[in-house]
Amino acid sequence: MERLNPEKLYVEFRPGVTPTEPIIERKYTLTHSDITAELFLTIGLEYAYDKINKMRDEVLAEWRTYDGYLFLYVYVYVDGQFGPAIRNAIFRRELPLALEAIRYGDRRFFIAHPELDNVPIWIHFDSTNPYYNRLENWGTPKDYK
Questions:
Q1: What is the pLDDT of residue 58?
Q2: pLDDT tens-digit profile of 47-93?
Q3: How far apart are CA 46 and CA 105, in angstroms?
Q4: Rounded CA gap, 42 and 59, in Å?
Q5: Closest to 69 measured CA to CA, from 120, 7, 12
Q6: C-alpha span between 120 and 123 (Å, rounded)
Q7: CB-based contact 42:51 (threshold 8 Å)
Q8: 24, 38, 124, 142: least buried by Cβ within 10 Å?
Q9: What are the residue boundaries of the Staygreen protein domain, all occurrences included (predicted)?
Q10: Between 117 and 82, where is the model more confident?
Q11: Inter-CA distances, 12 with 9, 18, 51, 128, Å
Q12: What is the pLDDT of residue 56?
């Protein structure tokens, strides 16, 4: 796994979100530049659809609850250009870096809410192919500090 270079991570807070609030409705859009290796994390009440390109290689995440339990839900679109097998392999290789970027980029949020470092991360690999369409547990945010 490539380690995060904080100098290449740019964080933007959209209206309605501060570095520490809210929890529910807080959404992350992580995009990148293949040319510069820069990462762009947008934190807002909505996903930053304006930052998503036709390659659909972004990582989307949000805080959700189910049956009274909080978790971080992450979504990646596995279908698309190059097919699900290649995109699935790329996402699996790059997701640890993406999760580290979210954890580091929103570190003041985690300092304000330390209990969130221990909630599960569920990743939805979205595909029309049943083999690649999966929901998987990827640990907790503290695993990506």
A1: 94
A2: 999 999 877 889 999 999 999 999 999 999 999 888 899 999 999 99
A3: 17
A4: 11
A5: 120
A6: 10
A7: yes
A8: 24
A9: 4-144
A10: 117
A11: 10, 10, 12, 32
A12: 81
